[in-house]
Design a protein that fits this description.
Radius of gyration: 13 Å
Number of strands: 10
Order of helices and strands: EEEEEEEEEHE
Number of helices: 1
Strand order of the largest sheet: 2-10-9-4-5-6
Length: about 120
């Protein structure tokens, strides 16, 4: 069974840093395009960072240069290093397979991890 468990969030002041982790089971992060998603109050969950099978990374425009997505293939963990955080980064962050997350009926979402950035 596919399972994602996110951790590492919290409350941080603007300019601070956090590292999110996503422990996965039932899939191999090395074999899939993986992404970090953010849900903010009143909005849909949106992809903010992705990494392909070959390691190519991509970011939502406002995050480029501040966030870094990476993975540990041996541990099957996806990471999101978040630096120079801004209040607009506040939200609940989730990880998932990018292709599967496009499906309306994809049920395998974790609980997410809240990130709150104070000004």
């Amino acid at each position: 069974q596919v399972q994602m468990v996110e951790s590492g969030g919290g409350l941080v002041q603007a300019g601070g840093s956090l590292t999110l982790s996503c422990e996965t089971s039932g899939i191999a992060v090395s074999d899939n395009a993986m992404g970090w998603y953010r849900r903010t109050s009143g909005e849909e969950r949106a992809l903010v960072a992705g990494i392909t099978r070959t390691g190519t990374t991509s970011y939502e425009d406002t995050l480029r240069g501040r966030f870094t997505i990476s993975r540990d293939n041996a541990k099957n963990i996806l990471y999101l290093q978040m630096n120079n955080l801004e209040p607009e980064d506040t939200g609940v962050y989730y990880c998932n397979l990018i292709a599967a997350a496009l499906r309306q009926d994809w049920p395998y979402w974790g609980q997410g991890v809240p990130v709150t950035v104070s000004s």
